[in-house]
Amino acid sequence: MIISPDRKDFSTIFNILGRLILGLSAFMLIPLAVAFLRKEVSPFFDFIISFLLTTSLGFLLLVLFPIKKEVSWIHAFFSVSLGWLIFSLLGAIPLWFSKHFGCFLDAWFEAMSGFATTGLILIQDLDHLSFAHNTWRHLTMFIGGQGIILASLSVLTMARPVAVGFYIGEARQEKIMPNVIATARFIWKVSFVYLLLGVGIFSAILIQRGLSIEKAFFHAFWLFCAAFDTGGFAPQAQNIAYYHSGAFEAATMVFMFLGAINFNLHFWVWMKRKRELFENFEIHTFLFTLFSLSILTYFSLKGLSNLTIFRRGFYQLVSAHTGCGFANMTSLDLRNSPPVMILSVIFAMMIGGGVCSTTGAIKLMRVGIIFKTLIMEIKRWMMPFRAVFRDRFHHLQDLILSDKRIKEAYVFAAIFLLTYVLGAVIGMVLGYPPLLALFESVSATANVGLSVGITNPAMPNTLKVIYILQMWCGRLEFLSVFVSLGFIISLFKR
Amino acid sequence: MKIVRIKLISLVIFLIAFNLGGAFGLYAETIPLKKIVEDPDDFESKLVEVEGEVIGEPLYAKEGAWVNILSKGYHAGIVVPRIYLDKIKHWGGYRESGDIAKVRGKFYKECPLHHEMHIHAHTLEIIALGAPKSDVVLPFKVQMAVSLFIICLIIGLVYFIKSRHGTRS
Q: Going by C-beta distance under 8 Å and a sequence separation of 6 or more, which residues neighbour residue A206?
């Protein structure tokens, strides 16, 4: 029997959304403070308006829609899927006020790209954007990467019984601690430690390159948010290429890796067993796929110097595999790269990072399971007819490759692949070459942000909306979106 | 002996001409940055002259400094001797538009030294000064902020009164 939501359910959902929107408005105080401290007058008013509008909406929802039912999974899934749409719309308001966007749709695209930690951009004249707006752009990635709901979850007490619903709704499959609230708080603690570390390292490199302390700090903070939360925004239009520094690129690679690693693995390495890092199934899968794709990239760029191959090929590959989307070459350059390199980057984007990390895409665990299942099938055919064979893998503990896990891996991989292809077909219908359309579609769905130039302010509005939907669904791994759609459809079937 | 002397003199004349060439027309006319970025192979290791707004800040390196220029949405990194940095008074950003610089130098698609696409500048001159940008608030934004402040205050008060005295179902 399918549960169909009633009026009381919707009242409860809007009440939860009101609370979450108030949480979002609190985050807007950060760019507001930046605008105030840096005396950026117009941006200050942009953020005052956005903050007041968001706060008013939050309070209005709380006043109009009281909690009428005990919070359950329906409410969690609905709140997550609707929440991300509403947050991106509200988050787009200050961006739109900045006058750096052709229309509100472009600003919404940028905000969704930020919250979904994608990194595709439609902003114009980025090099002249204020510090406050840049802070907000990068903050959206930090909030989105850590999980907006997760952020609120650590302070929201009334949703404790179904906290796990919110948690799974935001595409996180594994709890780190027995309690989800404690898990959320642990993720935030880990992130803040890395934040201090990242900002320190990036600042040091940038100060050494001649930036003032203030500028170096801001650039370091923004780029940390983009690297660790695998977002890919940068404060300058040239992205990472602006800094012209191999050392800086190497430093960003370290934080891209850290962001793409399962938070559970961070917990184990920090608190329990360091050796887990070398024994973990996801890490093995990551090294295998990265190594294989690196070989392809190396041969596709053969003839260039090793350092050039490292910076042109390997950096883009790591950026794609970790779902970050930092680029040290222009989209035109990427488009003109050898087809084998473009294909390698597409495959890397399709795979993504670890489950329970800030990346999108199919994810390492599922790709690893699919590989292992194939090997298991081959072995099975080579064994006696009556033999019973079950393969194992190590992820924090030895696990059996059960049918449930295999089914889950195949279902998610199939949904992702279907969405990649669907987006590519729409791109092709709109007149883009197949390989480039596939590249951009994968980049949007897998929340990567690398671009071969299709994503620009002049692209058709239809494609902008399609990419917004792909980023949204990809970030939430379809589950909460599909469940919410299912509940809405059930309303009409009553 | 005479032939050797002639060869030597020719070589010296050639070298002088090459070095002065930058100032006397060995460079092609100013090339739009777009053309270079879109067809880098056509300009590989050639002397080019480009113009663009200086953006961001100088980024120091061993061999000088990196300067990024922007022209009609296209960017290029330029390696310049540090001495040229004094010429640049305005760096493009939120507060000001940057100086427009004319750069003459050698373009590399894959520089053997820096391993990236850029121009090694031989000369840099400022052809137009940048200027501070206005940071003015539009009146409607102020009115909107005041109105929203009042609305927010009222709704917030209603919420707090309701949550304090109202009943929860």
A: A215, A216, A219, A220, A243, A248
